[in-house]
């Protein structure tokens, strides 16, 4: 068996409360152990001096556009972009065309991911048929096809009755329901957060209340049903408060946020640049501060990219006509470092937990750990290397990032996927 | 002319006029003063000027307009420019071409200035990043309509002799009105007090941050106003259900002869047009002695000549 040894790195594995300089050993596709293994002799050694060694990152909110919208992204290009960003596992939203609302749809995603041979792709099944919000999809069949969670994503489930039944039904399979919380009547035609900036710019607003009323509804339904609720991209201070209170009430709820909600605000919309147009919209400085508090105290469990690739010609439109979305697989890690580690809001182990162990637990995919016997998905992070984000160098097919040209620190130095060294940067 | 502000010229360096929010008070005065030199343009004998001879001005209208388009076209022609008219109906945009591509194609024919009207806020700003010619915003969504704001202010200055210290009421659909935003920015910079008045459903709460007073009741503010600008209900930009009925709106916020009796006798009544007669304003009020609605249209020509002239790189004192 091939033996791989990663030496001299600061090994952080939140699943084992581990944070110390030691060796990581890989045999074949699995973790062999951590620390000195005197009798073992490595065939390959990676020197990780000055670097962080941790489980491969897990991004549980990603839109790949295959089938149906391959001009934006394919499973192959998205999976390659993930690896480039140090992400070894991705949960793929059911938002392609057709929606992932059948066993065959889920299996297609596995098949394409296997053909591509990059990051692991885990399909998220649609909650309702065609994501129309009226009838439950064949959730059992989707589980059979490998769906790890359920979501209607940006077609929010408007019927409280359907949401209730979905939470109840998913309990049977112990799968989480990933909720995009938005009241579409309150956001109809909205382009950005409703407030002073939307008024000044003459753009139709999406009030914070449109998110919060649905967060509140879904939390109460989780309490009613005992289902597992995961709130996607929490963007307002009010939502953070609602989730915190729900956790205090021991309701089964988890939550995530993406770096754009930490680094950008409504004020960035003044450029009328559709690369900043995203749903939920960029909010205010007060919301950003509340979300950071939520990350610090554990109210918000997970960091995701919310990767939403869109072809150039789709985004190059009038702001109110352009679709929502920001790409993020290749920038998730450095942007989280900029937003959270550099200012001292989170320690490295706290950040790694929200990028590995927690999403792994929520999805139930037994990844996000360096425990002996686990799949050897590992990322070696160079925490200090400075670089400029350059969308033209993205592996992703799309370029819709508002962070183009931004100076950042920290990057995946080496990625190991199922024991295979996929790259080591010079 | 009754200009009280100093008529000194400032050096004009801008290539685009995208909104009044971007302009300094000195720049606003420069345009208004320059417009005065064109104020006789609509009166006989209508002598043609030569400031834009050999230049090409394109009216790029992606949204219906009569008055603004005609006014810009005439302004450019009176300055000697060649004028090209483009409107989106029946053009390539209906075949799926993006408006940026449309504009770039037209620019490739050799264009100096584009006058852009678009239903999307920020469309002229986006265009300014993609073309090399100068851009004049002729109204973008609910954002700004700078030449309308300028001509309203020009009319106020002409009729009342000043702007500084006046109280101006903007009445109606503030939320969806680009005219409201341009008026607010221009008036505040030139020292006026602004009261915005309308139902809360047509009034963004955050508007107080501009430094304006908010009222939901027209009658008590009326006696305090030197100018009332009756904004049109933007039926095309609204959702349904923002007020119960047109009669109720007209009763609460419409201008009529009885209401005018509560105002100062010299109240200046403006409306940016097109007016919905019988909704914002009754015909008697619109055509009465306080109204300067047609003078606004006349002044629009002078203001637009001044704007085109300045943006074409002509010195302001020429």
Description of the molecule:
The complex is a heterodimer of chains A (426) and B (318). With 426 residues, chain A is of the alpha/beta class. Chain A has helices spanning 75-84, 103-116, 139-144, 160-171, 184-187, 196-201, 208-225, 237-248, 260-263, 285-296, 312-315, 332-341, 348-355, 357-363; strands spanning 3-13, 18-27, 30-34, 44-47, 52-55, 57-62, 87-92, 120-125, 149-150, 177-179, 192-193, 205-206, 229-231, 253-257, 302-303, 378-388, 407-417, 420-424. In chain A, β6, α1 and β7 (87-92) form a beta-alpha-beta unit. In chain A, α7 (208-225) runs parallel beside α8. The longest helix of chain A has 18 residues, at 208-225. Chain A is globular, with a radius of gyration of 21 Å. The mean pLDDT of chain A is 97. Chain B is of the alpha/beta class. In chain B, the strands form 2 sheets. Chain B has a 5-stranded parallel β-sheet, covered by helices on one side. A 4-stranded parallel β-sheet of chain B has the order 2-1-3-4, with helices on both faces. In chain B, α1 (25-36) crosses α5 (146-160), α2 crosses α11 (293-311) and α5 (146-160) crosses α11. The two termini of chain B are 18 Å apart. The chains are: A alpha/beta (426), B alpha/beta (318). At the A-B interface, α6 of A face α4 of B.
SSE topology sketch:
The complex is a heterodimer of chains A (426) and B (318).
Chain A lengths: L2 E11 L4 E10 L2 E5 L9 E4 L4 E4 L1 E6 L12 H10 L2 E6 L10 H14 L3 E6 L13 H6 L4 E2 L9 H12 L5 E3 L4 H4 L4 E2 L2 H6 L3 E2 L1 H18 L3 E3 L5 H12 L4 E5 L2 H4 L21 H12 L5 E2 L8 H4 L16 H10 L6 H8 L1 H7 L14 E11 L18 E11 L2 E5 L2
Parallel strand pairs in A: 1-4, 1-5, 6-7, 7-8, 8-9, 10-13, 11-12, 13-14, 14-15
Antiparallel strand pairs in A: 1-2, 2-3, 5-16, 16-17, 17-18
Helix pairs in contact in A: 1-2, 4-7, 7-8, 8-10
Chain B lengths: L24 H12 L19 E6 L5 H12 L3 E6 L11 H9 L5 E6 L4 H6 L5 E7 L5 H15 L6 E5 L6 H12 L3 E5 L15 E3 L2 H4 L5 E4 L15 H8 L3 H6 L5 E3 L12 H4 L6 H19 L7
Parallel strand pairs in B: 1-2, 1-3, 3-4, 5-6, 5-8, 6-7, 8-9
């Amino acid at each position: 068996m091939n033996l791989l040894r990663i030496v001299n790195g600061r090994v952080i594995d939140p699943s084992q409360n581990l944070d110390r300089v030691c060796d990581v050993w890989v045999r074949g596709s699995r973790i062999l152990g951590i620390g000195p293994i005197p009798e073992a002799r490595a065939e390959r050694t990676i020197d990780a001096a000055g670097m962080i060694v941790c489980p491969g990152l897990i991004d549980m909110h990603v839109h790949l556009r295959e089938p149906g919208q391959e001009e934006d992204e394919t499973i192959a290009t998205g999976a390659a972009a993930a690896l480039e960003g140090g992400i070894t596992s991705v949960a793929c939203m059911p938002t392609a065309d057709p929606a992932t609302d059948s066993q065959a749809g889920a299996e297609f995603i596995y098949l394409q991911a296997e053909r591509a041979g990059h990051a692991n792709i885990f399909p998220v099944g649609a909650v309702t048929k065609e994501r129309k919000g009226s009838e439950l999809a064949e959730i059992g069949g989707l589980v059979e096809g490998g769906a790890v969670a359920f979501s209607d994503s940006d077609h929010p489930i408007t019927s409280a009755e359907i949401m209730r039944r979905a939470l109840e039904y998913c309990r049977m399979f112990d799968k989480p329901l990933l909720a995009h919380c938005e009241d579409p009547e309150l956001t109809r035609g909205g382009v950005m957060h409703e407030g002073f900036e939307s008024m000044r710019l003459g753009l139709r607003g999406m009030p914070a209340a449109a998110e919060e009323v649905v967060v509140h509804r879904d939390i109460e339904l989780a309490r009613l049903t005992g289902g597992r609720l995961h709130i996607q991209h929490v963007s307002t201070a009010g939502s953070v408060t609602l989730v915190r209170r729900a956790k205090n009430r021991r309701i089964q709820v988890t939550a995530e946020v993406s770096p754009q909600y930490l680094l950008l605000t409504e004020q960035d919309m003044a450029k009328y640049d559709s690369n900043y147009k995203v749903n939920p919209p960029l909010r205010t400085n007060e919301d950003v501060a509340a979300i950071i508090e939520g990350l610090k105290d554990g109210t918000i469990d997970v960091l995701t990219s919310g990767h939403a690739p869109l072809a150039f010609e789709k985004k190059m439109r009038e702001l109110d006509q352009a679709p929502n979305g920001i790409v993020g697989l290749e920038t998730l890690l450095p942007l989280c470092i900029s937003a959270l580690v550099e200012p001292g809001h989170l320690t490295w182990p706290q950040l790694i937990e929200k990028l590995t162990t927690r999403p792994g637990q929520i999805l139930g995919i037994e990844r996000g750990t360096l425990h002996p016997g686990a799949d050897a998905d590992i990322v070696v992070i160079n925490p200090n290397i400075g670089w400029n984000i350059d969308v033209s160098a993205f592996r992703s097919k799309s370029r819709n990032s508002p962070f183009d040209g931004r100076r950042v620190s920290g990057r995946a130095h080496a990625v190991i996927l199922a024991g295979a060294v996929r790259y080591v940067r010079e | 002319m009754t200009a009280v502000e100093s008529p000194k010229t400032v050096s004009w360096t801008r290539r685009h006029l995208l909104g009044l929010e971007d302009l300094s008070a000195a720049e606003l005065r420069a345009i208004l003063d320059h417009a005065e030199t064109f104020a006789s343009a609509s009166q006989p004998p209508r002598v043609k000027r030569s400031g834009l001879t050999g230049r090409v001005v394109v009216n790029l209208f992606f949204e219906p307009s009569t008055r603004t388009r005609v006014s810009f076209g005439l302004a450019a022609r009176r300055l000697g420019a060649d004028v090209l008219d483009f409107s989106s109906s029946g053009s390539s945009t209906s075949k799926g071409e993006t408006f940026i591509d449309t504009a770039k194609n037209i620019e490739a024919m050799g264009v100096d200035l584009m006058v852009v009207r678009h239903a999307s806020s920020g469309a002229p700003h986006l265009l300014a990043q993609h073309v090399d010619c100068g851009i004049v915003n002729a109204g973008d969504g609910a954002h700004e309509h700078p030449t309308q704001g300028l001509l309203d202010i020009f009319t106020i200055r002409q009729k009342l002799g000043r702007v500084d210290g006046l109280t101006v009421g903007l009445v109606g659909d503030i939320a969806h009105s680009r005219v409201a935003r341009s008026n607010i920015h221009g008036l505040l910079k030139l020292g006026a007090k602004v009261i915005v008045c309308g139902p809360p459903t047509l009034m963004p709460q955050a508007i107080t941050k501009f430094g304006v007073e908010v009222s939901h009741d027209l009658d008590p503010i009326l006696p305090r106003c030197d100018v009332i600008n009756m904004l049109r209900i933007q039926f095309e930009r609204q959702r349904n259900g923002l007020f119960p009925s047109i009669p109720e709106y007209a009763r609460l916020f419409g201008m009529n002869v009885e209401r005018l009796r509560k105002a100062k006798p010299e109240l200046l009544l403006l409306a940016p047009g097109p007016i919905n007669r019988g909704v914002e304003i009754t015909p008697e009020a619109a055509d009465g002695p306080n109204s300067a609605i047609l003078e606004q249209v006349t002044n629009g020509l002078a203001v637009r000549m001044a704007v085109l002239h300045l943006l074409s790189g002509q010195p302001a004192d020429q």
